[in-house]
Amino acid sequence: MADHEHISCQEVVELVNDYLDKGLEPDTASLFEQHVNFCDGCDWYLDQMRTTISTVGRVTEEEVPPEMRDKLMTAFREWKRS
Fold it and tell me: Is 31 a member of any domain?
């Protein structure tokens, strides 16, 4: 990925988890940060992902009602199919 001079918004979406987990190569992380610094939409998306991870990270499996868990699992399965 770092073989070109920039990354697209779609690539930011595809790479965001690796970026937050510090799993990107340094060159790719630099391109990611450069893009986010100049793209308000991707900056907002990155902030939303951080907020989601922070919030969801505090919820335990036992706290999720079974019916909600089933709805979420169905939604994830449907999303994966599309």
Answer: yes
